[in-house]
Amino acid sequence: MLLEVAGLDVYYGAVHALKGVSLNAGAGEIVTLIGANGAGKTTLLRTLSGLVRPRAGTVRFEGRDITRLPPHEIVGLGVSQAPEGRMIFANLSVEDNLELGAYRRRDRPGIAADRARVFQLFPRLEERRRQIGGTLSGGEQQMLAIGRALMSRPRLLLLDEPSLGLAPLLVREIFKTIQEINHAGVTVLLVEQNAHMALSVARRGYVLETGTVRLEDDAARLLQNEEVKQAYLGG
What is the mean pLDDT of residues 66-71? Predict the structure, then answer.
């Protein structure tokens, strides 16, 4: 397994945000996490990235325990996140945002090749390469957030609500690109409110409810699950 999470307990003060969460992702998979707001999905991604420290449990990446590593070391090992709300650098250009995604790298030819690959995935970013990030549309900022995460050349990409606030046409475009990224060999752990879309592209899925894993199954089976349909797929 590329990613193995076992028994994660995370607290925010007195709030028990994750309660014994275990999950895994194999190399080459798209695995999705679905659940209501406040279920713990973002907390889980932040814990995997090293931004939140668990009180108990372990996170292993390629067999190595990364539970206590600082975020920059986790990025260096091949785990990158495109956070909820995009969090791009609003006063920097598209190119500078991408450059910052590669801040740990020194291989200039490789960085240039990866920037070209991002522009191939998102032609609109190339058209706006010198534009200031804060002036981009919501969809373009989402593309930039994903592109920036790819600049560290991750083997595991953590995506937090990539479709949030986007028009349906753009949502389809973003999900098509997520599949392209996956086909290029990047494992994807996808947190997404649009459960139908997420389960349509994923191989497996986990349902989080109030900090616990309520269900796990093949994505195709979760799409047919009556409980999931009622709660997350509009009946």
Answer: 96
Task: Collapse the DSSP code of 111 into the 3-class scheme (helix H, G, I; strand E, B; otherwise coil) and give the result.
Answer: helix
CB 94 within 8 A of CB 128: yes
DSSP run (H or E) holding 170: helix 168-183
Residues in the chain: 235
Q: How many C-beta neighbours within 10 Å does residue 81 have?
A: 26
Beta partners for 103? none
Q: Residue 156 in contact with residue 80, Cβ under 8 Å?
A: yes
Give the pLDDT score at 70: 96
Which segments of the chain are extended strands (E)? 3-12, 15-25, 30-34, 56-61, 64-65, 79-82, 156-160, 187-191, 204-209, 212-218
Residue type for 74, please? I
In the chain, the amino acid numbered 51 is L
Q: How far apart are CA 172 and CA 176, in angstroms?
A: 6
Give the tokens for residue 86: 């995009």
